[in-house]
Amino acid sequence: MIKDSIPEKIFGRVNVLLLILLSLVMVFPLYYVFSISLTDPREYLKGGIILYPRGLTWDNYEYLFSTPLFIRSIGISAFLAIVGTTLGLIVTSSLAYTLSRKRLLGRKIILLLILITILFHPGIIPNYLLIRELGLMNSLWSLILPALSSGWNVFLMKSFFDSIPASLEEAAVIDGCNDMHVWWRIILPLSLPALATFGLFFAVAYWNVFFNAVLYINDFKKWPLQLVLRQMLIDSNTSAGGGNILEEGQMVNPQSIKMAAVIIATIPIMMVYPFLQKHFAKGVMVGSVKE
User: Fold this and answer.
1) Residue 228: other Cβ atoms inside 10 A
2) What is the pTM of this model?
3) Chain centroid offset of residue 107 CA
4) How far apart are CA 73 and CA 230, in angstroms?
């Protein structure tokens, strides 16, 4: 067994120390927001840095979950994340797998057209005109359909499918499988790392959808969570942001309510990641190494 030299040991320990410090720097803002969300409004108004919840209270969370607009926005964001991620994975994986098969007629032309969409983006106004002409204005589908896939995702997943030996497909065909069976029973089970990675990317993007919602959604009843948070930051006296007094007479600080809303908006994605972590570690290398 080869022992590390003294410089290597010092280098390793310094790296560990730097990573710990970097982790603390990244975690502290979230912890600070969480502390404020649980702090009693009277204690918060005293000022100062809140390193731990003062006068622990759950009133801010109770108030948010008693607000119809906020509850509705969580449901809308969940719908966008679930439906958008599912459809996005189906569209991206099926298109990428099809383009990875060299027997496809016009394959190079299709790849060139997809490449053009990466190099030349139409811009905001053409996208807006397209959504309007399709009759998708003020519809949740205007937030799902335009983001179902992208040229970049297709190329990355295609590279992953290219790394799968063609002999597996040939063996499945000999056993009587058609193209759909090969894709569903052979290719997709082998593609779990890639699917988990892109699924996480899709879920985060749909859960955090904001700009497209500003452009296409006018009805506040259809606002996703991020748009409601934006409105709370603009005006703390809206129905989403709340006033200064609860029905029971307990004082509520708008800033604390905003912090509680931020925590609620962050938790779902943080809960999903641990279940995908084992696949995500492999999937981040999609297309980077080709055997």
Assistant:
1) 27
2) 0.79
3) 31
4) 12
